[in-house]
Amino acid sequence: MANVARKVQVFEEPELRKPIAPKKVRRHKRWLTPGEKVMIVVFALFFCVLSVKIISTETAIYQTNKEIQQIEAKVKNQQEVNKDLQMQISEDSTYKKIWEKARQQGLNLNQQNIKVVQ
């Protein structure tokens, strides 16, 4: 009977239990580390501050250019007025006009009172 018991044992041995494999723990890999997040926030703030600075500088440049154009327009108008006045002066300073104005004031041309200076 010992043989029978051995045979029974032989039949039971081939059934080997498969070892239970430990479950793999999935670690959730973070997309960004905290350091990277801080760097992104600092870069975004720097970008915003730089953008505001550029816009304010452009606004100041625009205002300055506007003032320059207004001043240039005033200068041009004043130059035209000066040119017109210069033409009026040259017209009024002719000998004929001066002589007419002198006659209106009561001055007469007396040839005896004329002296030539060299």
UniProtKB/TrEMBL annotation:
Record field: transmembrane: 38-56
GO cellular component, one term: plasma membrane
Keywords: Cell cycle, Cell division, Cell membrane, Coiled coil, Membrane, Transmembrane, Transmembrane helix
Coiled coil feature spans: 61-88
UniProt topology in membrane: Single-pass type II membrane protein
Keyword set includes Coiled coil: yes
GO BP field: FtsZ-dependent cytokinesis
Compartment list: Cell membrane
Source organism, top-level taxon: Bacteria
Keyword Cell division: yes
Entry similarity comment: Belongs to the FtsL family.
Function as written in the Swiss-Prot or TrEMBL entry: Essential cell division protein.
Record HAMAP family: FtsL (MF_00910)
NCBIfam families the UniProt entry points to: ftsL_broad
Identification of the protein by name: Cell division protein FtsL
Protein's organism: Bacillus smithii 7_3_47FAA
Organism lineage string: Bacteria, Bacillati, Bacillota, Bacilli, Bacillales
